């Protein structure tokens, strides 16, 4: 009897495993969303336990859910005081959550599988590839002219694991002496340096102390290290992979790498100059400080607006023009397959290249001596349109619920969708529970990406065996 029961249990286990594998193969986008949603719920349960909260009591269900989503989606928005609310166990859950969310759930699962089994099967390669390239979330043939080919996924996973450890270790080494100079004991300084480095590289923006960045508000070294961590984290793992393979040979870098680095640097410089000009003379921000401090604060905000989430100044006191520039930078975000959010810098690049090609009367988009196929433009337009629609819809709903000013609501909605974490003060502990839930769902949708969401809602990709008559509508 025991042997029969064991055989029955094994059969049930095998059937369950086969059902999961079939679902993952048939609907990769839906599988990714289900896994990511389950992970968010697991962390919500952990943060709601008595062990996660400092002192007596527990965190409410809505607040625990909001913070879990903000952690796993590496956003940085908070409705509790992150420095005092959590116990050591709660802080450990937060740091593990942002690491898992920053790396990517399917990527992390593939890394663990490769570590245990010493090999990477085709199914695991496809799962990891869907994390590194949104084009793979649809079932069907995928063109391989991209930054990471399917055969290189195993090497990419090794780069992901090593780069996370290496970059965060470098940030800890750079931050630790500065914290020791503040008079902190070694263990406290080491913990805070580790916390800051993890939050910088994952573009999360949570802070480990009550005073936050206030003691370092005029410190170019500390703020500069955070900017470096955020910028590197926002480039994306495919960029590290290509650069390390062709170190010192920029001509061999892929088009994706060149576009990501070029547009990221351009947005950082233009954003910093815009903030410097727009906040000039604003006594409520940094506009009346000495010129060196104005430069530091302007470019720090430019770096953080791309997905970093750290803030030195009260953003609610900025000019509305500065808030609008920040909205634009947050909406764009960082690089694909990175710890940053937004529509991604390559999406913005494709849209501008298409506009330039149209203005010059060219049939195709070109950049760095390469021609970009039209299906990439369709994807870029889809990402931008879906993202703008989601942001607009959520903003309208929250305006009706809260009655807060449009500039503040729009700012925090974009911050949530682009997983940035900056806030004008709209997101706070006293926010209505329905508004918290809506913002949490916005963070979730923003992190999984509009392409993945659209692919999950749509049917599997089909080949159309006919073409309809062509007719051109008037545009413009």
UniProtKB/TrEMBL annotation:
GO MF, one annotated term: monoatomic cation transmembrane transporter activity
Cell location: Cell membrane
Topology within the bilayer: Multi-pass membrane protein
Transmembrane feature ranges: 31-52, 92-117, 156-176, 221-243, 255-278, 328-355, 376-399, 405-426, 438-459
Pfam families xref list: TrkH (PF02386)
Top-level taxonomy: Bacteria, Bacillati, Actinomycetota, Actinomycetes, Micrococcales
InterPro entries: Cat_transpt
Keyword Membrane: yes
Domain of life, source organism: Bacteria
Keywords: Cell membrane, Ion transport, Membrane, Transmembrane, Transmembrane helix, Transport
GO cellular component terms given for this protein: plasma membrane
Biological processes per GO annotation: metal ion transport
Protein name from the UniProt record: Potassium transporter Trk
């Amino acid at each position: 009897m025991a042997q029969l029961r064991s055989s029955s249990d094994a059969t049930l286990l095998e059937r369950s495993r086969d059902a999961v594998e079939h679902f993952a193969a048939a609907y990769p986008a839906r599988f990714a969303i289900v896994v990511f949603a389950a992970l968010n719920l697991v962390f919500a349960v952990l943060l709601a336990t008595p062990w996660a909260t400092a002192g007596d009591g527990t965190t409410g269900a809505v607040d625990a859910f909001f913070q879990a989503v903000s952690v796993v989606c590496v956003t940085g928005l908070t409705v509790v005081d992150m420095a005092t609310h959590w116990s050591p166990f709660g802080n450990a859950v937060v740091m593990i959550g942002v690491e898992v969310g920053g790396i990517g759930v399917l990527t992390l699962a593939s890394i663990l599988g490769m570590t245990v089994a010493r090999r990477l099967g085709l199914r695991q390669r496809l799962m990891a590839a869907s994390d590194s390239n949104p084009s793979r979330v649809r079932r069907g043939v995928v063109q391989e002219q991209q930054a990471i080919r399917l055969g290189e996924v195993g090497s990419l996973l090794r780069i992901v694991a090593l780069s996370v450890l290496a970059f965060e270790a470098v940030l800890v080494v750079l931050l630790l002496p500065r914290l020791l100079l503040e008079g902190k004991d070694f263990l406290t300084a080491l913990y805070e340096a580790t916390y800051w480095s993890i939050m910088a590289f994952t573009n999360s923006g949570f802070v480990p102390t009550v005073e936050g960045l206030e003691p370092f508000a005029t410190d170019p070294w500390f703020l500069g290290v955070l900017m470096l961590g955020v910028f590197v984290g926002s480039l994306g793992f495919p960029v590290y992979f290509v650069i390390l393979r062709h170190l010192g040979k920029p001509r061999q870098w892929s088009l994706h790498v060149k576009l990501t680095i070029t547009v990221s640097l351009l947005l950082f410089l233009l954003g910093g100059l815009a903030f410097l000009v727009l906040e000039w003379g604003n006594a409520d921000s940094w506009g009346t400080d000495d010129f060196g401090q104005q430069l530091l604060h302007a470019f720090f905000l430019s770096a953080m607006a791309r997905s970093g989430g750290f803030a030195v100044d009260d953003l609610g006191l900025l000019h509305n023009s500065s808030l609008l520039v920040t909205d634009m930078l947050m909406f764009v975000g960082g690089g694909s397959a990175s710890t940053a959010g937004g529509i991604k810098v390559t999406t913005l690049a494709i849209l501008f290249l298409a506009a330039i090609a149209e203005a010059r009367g060219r049939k195709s988009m070109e950049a760095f001596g390469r021609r970009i196929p039209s299906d990439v433009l369709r994807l870029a337009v889809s990402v931008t349109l879906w993202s703008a629609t989601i942001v607009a819809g959520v903003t309208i709903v929250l305006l009706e619920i809260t009655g807060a000013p449009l500039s503040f609501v729009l700012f925090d909605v974009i911050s949530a969708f682009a997983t940035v974490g900056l806030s004008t003060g709209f997101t706070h502990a006293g926010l209505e529970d329905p508004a918290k839930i809506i913002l949490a769902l916005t963070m979730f949708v923003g992190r999984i990406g509009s392409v993945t969401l659209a692919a999950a809602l749509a049917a599997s990709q089909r080949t159309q065996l006919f073409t309809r008559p062509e007719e051109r509508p008037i545009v413009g």
